[in-house]
Design a protein that fits this description.
This protein is an alpha+beta fold and 253 residues long. It contains 5 helices and 3 strands. Helix 1 packs antiparallel against helix 2.
């Protein structure tokens, strides 16, 4: 019988940075997801604000149109009395009636737009239109912030989530080039073991039972049929595409 107690350890040296670039690429992908979430929140909040302002504007247009219609109705009544008294013509009455009807004809379209804007606002806040009980916004109740952050246009563009998204994608793409390059280079691995071997358990931990080894290995791909080279070329092309997308995003911003 042989009693053995040993520990084996193996470690691959990151001599050419392949593992570091993998971690770098994963961190960049995590940043991309974080900036994408930030952009979604920013888009949602801006849509809610825009819908609220549009709703308040439509309410103001409806109120103004009602006031105009009432004023035109009063003017029509006055013109009708003038006609009865002989101080106005029938054409004046018809002209005033036409103006009133044109004003009233615009009310259904405004009410329809107001209902659509209300339903859109309900969708933005995650509510069904029938269950939405939002506040009745008016233009007078909306206030612009008194203190606005001041920054340079370049800094303002840099803070945009979409620009930061594509910056993270470019970072991840360039890291992929490093990973593909490292895969073409030798892999160095160190392996070590330490333990005790003894024919009797009582002698297992005696100094004479010590057994150890230390081995270094070097692995180099010799023939992959051009796979590694083309993977690196694909990674470079992906980085160029990411750079073009980043540039286009900055220009659009």
């Amino acid at each position: 019988n042989l009693d053995t107690a040993s520990v084996n350890v193996s470690y691959t040296l990151d001599a050419f940075g392949g593992v570091r670039r993998q971690v770098e690429a994963l961190n960049a992908q995590a940043e991309y997801q974080r900036f994408a979430l930030e952009a979604s929140y920013l888009t949602l909040t801006s849509n809610i604000v825009t819908a609220a302002i549009n709703k308040a504007s439509l309410r103001a247009q409806l109120a103004a149109t009602d006031d105009i219609a009432r004023s035109q109705q009063k003017q029509l009544d006055i013109t009708q009395r003038r006609l009865d008294a002989g101080g106005a013509s029938r054409a004046d009455v018809l002209q005033q009636q036409a103006a009133l009807q044109n004003t009233l004809a615009g009310l259904p379209a405004l009410r329809s737009q107001l209902a659509q804007q209300r339903n859109q606002l309900a969708a933005f806040v995650g509510s069904l239109p029938a269950d939405y009980t939002g506040a009745a916004f008016t233009l007078d109740s909306l206030k612009i912030p008194q203190d606005l952050p001041v920054s340079l246009p370049s800094q303002f563009v840099e803070q945009r989530p979409d620009v930061r998204e594509y910056s993270a994608l470019l970072h991840a793409a360039t890291a992929q080039v490093g990973i593909a390059t490292a895969n073409m280079l030798p892999q160095i691995t160190l392996s070590g073991s330490y333990g005790q071997d003894a024919s009797a358990f009582s002698n297992l931990f005696q100094p004479s039972s010590n057994v150890w080894s230390l081995i270094g290995s070097l692995t180099q791909p010799l023939f992959k049929g051009g796979q590694l080279r083309h993977q690196r070329r694909a990674a470079i092309a992906g980085a160029q595409e990411a750079a073009a997308n980043y540039k286009a995003t900055v220009i659009t911003a």
